[in-house]
Amino acid sequence: MFDTISGYSVLWVVGVQWKWAFIMSCLFELVTVTCCHFQLTHLSSFTLTLGTDTVHWSKCVKYLGVRLVSGRTRGFDVNPIRRSFFAACNAIYSQSARMDNILQLSLMESYCLPILAYAASAITYKTRQLDDLNSCWNSVYRKIFGFNLWESVRAFINGLARLDLKHICVLYKCRWICKARRCTELIQNF
């Protein structure tokens, strides 16, 4: 099959398949995608052109607000998420410092929690990354309710009938699966 295709065409097909496989496997882990995965290091010596434009290889790609990082395994960079989260938290806290604690928490849940939970239904973070994001969310409780860094806020969160970020991510995944199942049933019944 490859004998009839020029080297340029093979390189273009390989590059497109790798990028598509990388994006699909990162954003839709719950759906099995069968594609050939090629390491970026093997393809980086080749130039990929699309029409007259040259496509440069990159170690990371920002796609739909999620920063995908290439390497031996697929990965996500959570540092931009953390920076955006703390910027939003500081902006809200500076304007609501004299408000009631529960009202401040409600504002943080409405405006800052979606930053941490964005794409949580499609992404499976590494344990360390999820722990980092969870500690960011716990810092909201520490700041609003005056806890020290060495004090655990887990029991306090449960006492307020709220969830920590780890359980919120699991809840989002379950909701996504239920919606996907309902959508599939609607399509099959149509």
Largest sheet: 3 strands, antiparallel
Q: How would you write the strand order of the largest sheet?
A: 3-4-5
SSE arrangement, N to C: HHEEEEEHHHHHH
Binned strand content: 5-15%
What are the low-pLDDT stretches, counting only 5+ consecutive residues below 50?
A: 1-41
**Count of strand segments:** 5
Number of domains: 2
Shape from CA axes? Answer: globular
Write out key terms for the chains shown.
190 residues, mainly alpha, globular, two-stranded antiparallel sheet, three-stranded antiparallel β-sheet, disordered N terminus
Folded structure, characterized:
- With 190 residues, the chain is mainly alpha-helical.
- The chain folds into two domains: 2-76, no CATH class; 79-189, no CATH class.
- It is 57% helix and 8% strand.
- The longest helix is centred in the C-terminal third of the chain and has 25 residues, at 165-189.
- Residues 1-41 have low confidence and may be disordered.
Task: Indicate the topology.
Elements lengths: L6 H21 L12 H4 L4 E3 L2 E3 L4 E4 L2 E4 L5 E2 L2 H18 L4 H11 L1 H5 L9 H19 L8 H6 L5 H25 L1
Antiparallel strand pairs: 1-2, 3-4, 4-5
Helix pairs in contact: 3-4, 3-6, 4-6
